Amino acid sequence: MTQEQTTYTAKDFSSDQEVRWCPGCGDYSILKQVQSVLPDIGVAKEDIVFISGIGCSSRFPYYLNTYGMHSIHGRAPAIASGLKISNPDLSVWVITGDGDALSIGGNHLIHLLRRNFDMNVLLFNNEIYGLTKGQYSPTSPEGKVTKSTPMGSVDHPFNPLALAAGADGTFIARTMDRDPKHLRQILKEADDHKGTSLIEIYQNCNVFNDGAFGVFTDKGTKADTTVFVEHGQPLVFGEHENKGVRLDGATPVVVDLESGDFSKDDLWKHDKTDRSKAGLLMRCFETPTKDLESLPRPFGVFYQEDKTCYEEMLHAQIKSSIETKGNGDLEALLRGTNTWEIE
Amino acid sequence: MEDLKTIKHNKESKQDVAILFAGDSGDGIQLTGSQFSNTSALFGNDVSTFPDYPAEIRAPQGTIAGVSGFQLNFGSIEIFTPGDLCDVLVVMNAAALKANLGKLKIGGTIIANTDGFDKKNLKLSGYVDMRNPLEDNSLGKYRIIEIDVTKLTRESLKESALGIKEKDRSKNMFVLGFLYWMYNRELAPTEKFLHEKFKSKPDLIEANMAVLKAGYNYGDTSETFTTRYEVKPAPLPKGVYRNIMGNQGVAIGLIAASQKAGLPLFYGSYPITPASDILHELSKHKNFNVRSFQAEDEIAAITSAIGASFGGNIGITASSGPGIALKGEALGLACILEIPLVIVNVQRGGPSTGLPTKTEQADLLQAIYGRNGEAPIPVIAASSPRDCFNQAFEAVRIAIEHMTPVFLLSDGYIANGAEPWRFPSADQLKAINPPVVKEATDEEFLPYRRDEKGVRQWAVPGIKGLEHRIGGLEKQDETGNVSYDPENHEKMVGLRAEKIAKIADFIPLQKVDQGAEKAKLCILGWGSTYGAIKTAVKELLAEGHSVSQVHVKYLFPFPKNLGELLKGFDQVIVPELNKGQLVKIIRSEFLIDAKPLSKVKGLPFSATEIKEAALKHLES
Questions:
Q1: Chain B residues near residue A2 by CB distance under 8 angstroms
Q2: What mean pLDDT do residues B599-606 have?
Q3: Looking at CB atoms within 10 Å, which of A20, B76, B556, B597 has the fewest?
């Protein structure tokens, strides 16, 4: 990988193709933040590859002036795995949506995480099938009324982060299209992580599921419904940082910091290396109510772990095989071990 | 072994002998058969083998469902099939006899392990009233040699510290030793094999060798036979030979091609019978820069290979029918991406899970037509175990030089069969030239600009100035940008089809394998039916019939002269292990009244079946 000092700007990463998402789509914001982060990751443009599956988000590679492949339903993780094995020096980014990654491609996603290839997976979650015009998705809430569920969906939704943790993912984070600064920061942290980084990005589909995450993204409610977690910092939230999350044993509870009963020192201090606490954090998934007692939805890096990557081990085996057996000798391979001569 | 040879026995020369080893799937039948084959090949015989084993890992012991078989044909003449009927049937138990008696020639020899004919075995194999066929005179048409293999094996290991179970496990060596004596074979190759197999277990080497020798000596001293048989080396073309199995041939062919192309080999696959041995073989050769990847499913197997090809490796995947079905969508992707990829289909009985361990040739139409949209993909087929090497090499060459996925069809019969192979030297293999772009020029890079062959260039991520995006959506000519323009779509469909059709300019013309270019009857085959057709036509020609053999290895596109060639025959028959797939294409392509000869039993053709069908056509 050419580690040359790059002096790219976001514009260098913009392809000559017209961006064709619906006006107001959350994808625009994500594209913009990705384009603005790429100049900072220190990788030459020709060493970056975006691989996507099918769906609105999967048009993403066309709009980036890097190498890219828009592939087939759900298979981007598998294509990216083969690509990463073929050339471990590439910076590989997988672009996928909630249907693509969690329904048709669920199998590939869990195995990508399990193998821990060094790549970044950007999971655009809008809780709806946009490209096929409005059916419920694996992240749609129970009871969701859509074209295919006129009486409400009876499916229980996936919690993508808990799923990633179940597959032993080594970098698990959540962010949102409407918080560009946070989005950029998470993208940067994900790229710094060596291993599979899964970022769930709440993304608004203003045509088929407008406002699905409004309660977390709208100015009026955001402060009370979200908590932005940072490694080593207590879980504080609320308009005036007046609330916090405290651990009562293994149960997270919301506490009022203004009553005088608790201070920041009593709160749950986020440790992204603590697997079980990260699990508790991911499970803070219930839909918030007006009731002050309800837990906020966490955003940030939930979990991070250093672990060897698949492609490293595979290439180490090849190297060790060459060291012990010598470079493959085609003549000897053709000959095999038992020969005889006919004269 | 000189001291073991005695002069009291007569020697009878035989041109060729077919032996069928049969027993319970735990009896070590496959190993016994392959050891006898290897030893015979090393001795200089021509050899053809047919392993036939149950689909269940371990069906109940002693039952018909659990019978495992290994037939081999070896001779001092050229051998093309494992033989229609066998001369010798070795049975380790009653079920093995019941299942295989129909495959023994009248007057043939049965070598029976009497220990496998006790009451329990007779009951399990369903002999009426538990009547022992060895004792009730029902086998009068055959010669029976009874040996209590279990007892003699235990006896020869009296001094050994091994447990009874372990001792009994080596009883296949007794049988092997006995047959080595019968056919004057040396024990040395098997001794070498045992030393490699049980490298870390010297007590097992010792035990197996003791039993092997005991079997040999038993033949020498028991006076069971007064005649030993001699099968002299075959007059094969001069050269150095080795034995090769079909799946092994595929793996070696793929590696050779990747070396000749100067590209790392990426192999993505999901285990499936009978294709898995390709994965096993390739995984052994990591020092050839082979990147083998056991994917989570068939779809990941092929898509990972597509990703690797995008990254500049030669992406390869293999499977059998049901797995190929799952790969269908990705095949279309590779087709529209115009990226090199090899897909091996080791066919088995279908539909669905069908007959996993049995052979069939019924995926030809799937390979040629089985995708959505106009998605032409070249299809080639291997005709024998050693041909698997040639065709695997050829599949990679076409895939790379024509920037296309390529289907290679093999099947269970040739995948597990073995034959002697006069292997080439590395420099005899053609160079393969990948159309890669090494660096950007002043001219704008257009990923879908074509050369005179209709082939686009391969621009691999990592090269500055060639950044481009490809995908499954229809692309604009030359730029590769997404395009829904109706005129463009029709043009692109045409360009892709033309590119594949042009491959016909880069493959050999069709030759007549045996017989004249014009004859009364042409037997047209493809794939693993080669050996049976070869044997049948050889006999027909010797008997003076006007018959020819034409065997097609390039099934899509066909060699340019195939139509003209076939029109030179009065009649064309097409034996296939399916309901008539190639014949359908031949009829529609060339308007020739070719006739099918179908067999769909999970078993290969016998030469006799083909000969009889041919005679009917010649008489009509």
A1: 464
A2: 96
A3: A20
